[in-house]
Amino acid sequence: MSNLDLALKDMMVIDGAIGAAVVDYNSGMALGMLSSSKALDLQVAAAGNTEVVRAKLRTMEQLGLKEDIEDILITLSGQYHIIRPMTGRKSKGLFLYLALDRGRSNLALARHHLRGIEEELEV
User: Fold this and answer.
1) Beta strand pairing status for 29-35 and 72-75?
2) pLDDT higher than 90, residue 25
3) Which of 1, 33, 113, 115 fits 21 for a cystine, CB–CB 3.0-4.6 Å?
């Protein structure tokens, strides 16, 4: 089993996880994805969240901010969506995407777990 597959499985064991993907934000394509819900189209989510990441990076550049994005959080009435750009030398241009059921998840623990997965993943 590949490192990517293990990372996706680790993401899906986070309490409340309904979908997980590793996405290339240069192309908008998901390198891998897992879901427990047919209602969540991860291909659409990967492409749409690519635009979110690109827009934030452009805005930071225009503002002259020399910082890294830790994560981007989108809260919906019933879900949390976490986008975590990867910072490793070999994983630049990728982000982790995790969709959570808001009623079954702990956001702080999910973010902590996702940070650990990002540190261990080599793509």
Assistant:
1) unpaired
2) yes
3) 33
